[in-house]
Design a protein that fits this description.
The complex is a heterodimer of chains A (430) and B (157). Chain A has 430 residues and is of the alpha+beta class. Chain A is built from twelve helices and 14 strands. The longest helix of chain B has 24 residues, at 130-153. The chains are: A alpha+beta (430), B alpha/beta (157).
Chain lengths: 430, 157
């Protein structure tokens, strides 16, 4: 087979800007490069010198898809730095807010961005125009219910503004939840239908023995807190992230590549959470997973579309449970006393674990900021998937290779940047 | 039928890309007979906002090669739309994809206009270009009268 370079100049249906290149020599893949531009590096610099209270709102603007994740990791880190513990009702409201983001983000990616790969369409519009309009509409209506949860608790749908260090600016009254509860009850049925739809696709028969990393909480499926665990034996508090994970500059990318010390590349996101925390899924989500035949042993990343749908159902169930149990807190936020310190926070963004670390001066000024988003953690794993999964189809037409590469990248729901939708793919065959 | 809707599209903190959002924020607060929404420009979110509306006006930043601050107006349903600064893809602008998706799903407004403000600097952390700020003020001044005139022009049963 001739040497060649496979290049795709434009990949739609990912959130961000990047490029991809496969180098083939003597019929074998010798290199894969996934290059991305990533805003968190800019935001880290932007945060330095600002007041700690600004971090939740500023970091929420890093991503239009998962602003809640950025807010949650940042407030958690700030509260650790300042020695603040929030009461249970505040914690529950934050988890409920996170549920809204999981619903909207997972359904958006699964239905509008990833499903067209499995059904052979260029995008959601073509899919809707060819007999799938009812499903696309169902997914949009489901996403809207996630938007409504975020708007209700976060103050608005995009870039929510109601979260503050120590709690919220304003909290709802118990009776205010009634309309949202009705919507979430409907959403449960809609999501069951959606899960079955994604499970009906034909999945490439591919799998790898990933090093999996996620948060794990003793009592619940992980979203806002937990210890960092791995199937490679890791079980550490969030504060020890820096001792076990490294960020390295690589020539081909503006983003840093992450590795687990002593292990190397690793996977965060739905497949990792599902494998490491399946036992924590609430009953309805667990039953739905069983119905469609997907469990904690799943290592096929293409089936992440169904795991996302099951996790959306988990979020719906959890939001309903939290509404039922909600007791209004005595105050929307606890008092915060300024002090110098360092704090870390990690939460589960829809696409994987998101780590923040801040050092504060004694007047609350941010001295240092570190933000490790899930896509930069997954970058080395994305490159390895491409190296492993397309090697046996290099003799196929280039269009077919490109499509599988793009589908493989979209398994990760990569949030590459929040500005554009570019991804260049190059296959270098010499 | 619901009232007309003005949607401000864009990214705050990204220089001129914030123009549409700023128009929406400047119009909010007073009831002028139309509703206001903001979004980042994803087709899925725009379609959700379209649903149930007969009249939508989207304000967004664009890159067409015109002078910064130029205000371009398009019939989004029948016209060819300029490139959005944040959705330069094979799918065209977010508004364009939203129109195609809205049509496929049967939720297209009867009328949807795009007012596109030509931007110059879309980099993160950049200040808004003065000419773009002036165009924002022009939109804020002209949109209420434009929508009121359009409302009067729609025959009522």
């Amino acid at each position: 087979m001739a040497d060649k370079t496979i290049k795709v100049d434009l990949l739609a249906r990912v959130e961000g800007e990047g490029a991809f290149k496969v180098t083939v020599r003597d019929g074998r893949i010798v290199a894969t490069e996934f290059r991305i531009f990533e805003p968190p590096r800019f935001f880290e610099a932007f945060l330095r010198g600002r007041d700690f209270r600004e971090a939740p709102d500023i970091t929420a603007r890093i991503c239009g898809i998962c602003p809640v994740a950025y807010q949650m990791s940042s407030v958690q880190a700030m509260e650790m730095a300042l020695g603040v513990t929030v009461p249970q009702p505040i914690r529950d409201l934050r988890r409920m807010l996170y549920c809204g983001e999981w619903i909207e983000s997972h359904i958006l990616h699964a239905a509008m961005l990833h499903a067209p790969d499995f059904l052979g369409y260029a995008g959601a519009v073509e899919m809707a125009n060819d007999g799938h309009a009812d499903t696309v509409k169902l997914a949009l209506d489901l996403k809207k219910i996630g938007n409504d949860v975020v708007a209700f608790l976060g103050g608005r749908e995009i870039h929510p503004i109601n979260v503050r260090v120590g709690g919220f600016y304003k909290v709802p009254r118990r009776q205010d939840f009634a309309p949202l509860r009705e919507k979430l009850l409907r959403a449960g049925e809609m999501c069951e239908t959606f899960i079955d739809w994604t499970a009906s696709f034909d999945f490439p028969d591919k799998a790898r023995d990933y090093a999996l990393v996620s948060l794990r909480h003793p009592d619940e499926y992980p979203m806002g807190e937990g210890r960092i665990v791995s199937n490679r034996g890791l079980d550490i508090p969030v504060a020890e992230f820096g001792a076990h994970f490294t960020e390295d500059h690589v020539a081909q990318s503006n983003a840093l590549h992450c590795h687990m010390v002593g292990v190397g590349r690793y996977l965060v996101g739905p497949v990792a959470r599902f494998a490491l925390c399946f036992d924590q899924l609430p009953p309805r989500a667990k039953a739905a997973a069983g119905r469609v035949g997907i469990g904690p042993d799943c290592r096929n990343p293409y089936r992440s579309i169904t795991i996302r749908a099951v996790e959306a159902l988990c979020a719906i169930e959890e939001a309903l449970r939290l509404i039922e149990a909600y007791e209004e807190p005595g105050a929307p936020a606890v008092e915060v006393t300024l002090r110098a310190g360092t704090g870390m926070g990690a939460t589960e963004a829809p696409r994987g674990m998101l780590f923040h670390q801040y050092t504060l001066a004694d007047d609350g000024t941010i001295r240092t900021a570190q933000i490790v988003p899930p896509t930069s953690q997954n970058q080395p794993s994305i490159e390895e998937d491409l190296a492993q999964f397309i090697g046996d189809i290099l003799d196929r037409p280039e269009q077919e290779i490109r499509e599988l590469c793009e589908q493989t990248i979209r398994n990760y729901d990569p949030c590459i940047s929040c500005a554009t939708h570019f991804l260049n793919l190059t296959i270098d065959r010499g | 039928m619901a009232r007309p809707l003005v949607i401000g599209v864009g990214m705050p903190m990204a220089g001129d890309d914030a123009a549409g959002r700023l128009v929406a924020q400047r119009l909010a607060g007073n009831d002028r007979g139309f509703d206001i929404a903001e979004c980042q420009g994803m087709a899925a979110d725009l379609v959700l906002l379209f649903e149930g509306r007969a009249r939508v006006l989207v304000v967004d930043a664009c890159r067409s090669g015109a002078a910064p601050g130029t205000l371009l107006r398009f019939d989004a349903i029948t016209g060819t739309l300029p490139a959005s600064p944040r959705a330069v893809s094979s799918h065209g602008s977010g508004v364009e994809e939203a129109i195609r998706l809205g049509r496929a799903l049967g939720v297209l407004p009867e009328r949807c206009d795009l007012w596109a403000i030509e931007g110059a600097d879309f980099s993160l952390g950049a200040a808004m270009t003065p000419a773009v700020s002036a165009a924002v003020e022009r939109c804020v001044a002209e949109i209420p009268a434009c929508l009121a005139a359009a409302e009067r022009a729609i025959p009522r049963p």
